[in-house]
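ok here's HAD family hydrolase, seq below lol
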Amino acid sequence: MSDSLEAVLFDLDDTLCRYRRSSTAVLECAFERVGVDPVFDPAAYPERYGDYLASSSSIGDLHRQCFGDLAVEAGADRELGIAVAEAFNEERDQRAVDPLAGVPDVFDTLEESYRLGLITNGDPAMQAEKLEALGLTDTFEPVVCSGYDTAPKPDPEPFEVALEALDLTPEQALYVGNSLTSDVSGAQAAGLPSVWVPADNGRAAMTGTGPEPTYTIESLAALASVPSLSV
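and the structure came out like this:
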């Protein structure tokens, strides 16, 4: 496979960078700003995030839809959930992200031999802010914001769109991401080999009958250990 590999495609959130403040911490501040006790479990937000990608027009709209529904499900008024969403949007700084291990140095090496692309579930404006903060604005081509440009991962469409833009077959690209259910499953559905970088930056044990990545590494800095790459 290494002889035919032409491109390496990446996920963004929790693969290349991480927010300095967790969504739980930002939600706690949002509840305080609205002047209410938590009206829904903050942990429910990341679990439900993907449900609203296809129906939302922006990250702010996603928060309004999601938090409104969570408030109603918790027995509160939808308008209260929307107020929390507005406070959350004001609190969340999309540029307040830190690069994970290996970023950006690994790209300096990879771009000598491979084309680099990005496939990320997220609002294009939001993800552009993160890339600018990381100094990676000009690193990836194409950038596919799934859930907005295409169906969200793990649907194969965003991978197919990226491959079409690169004029490559699935066997000529490798996808790197932190999520088994979103990244590895999506890559498999589109026929791409995958590299799994566990979100905790450790070689987490896989359980159950979930998708099995082609390769598993502890951080992007360990991409050199992937047989398909001569980095």
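fwiw Strands lie at 7-10, 17-19, 97-99, 115-121, 143-146, 173-177, 194-196, 215-216. kinda neat tbh
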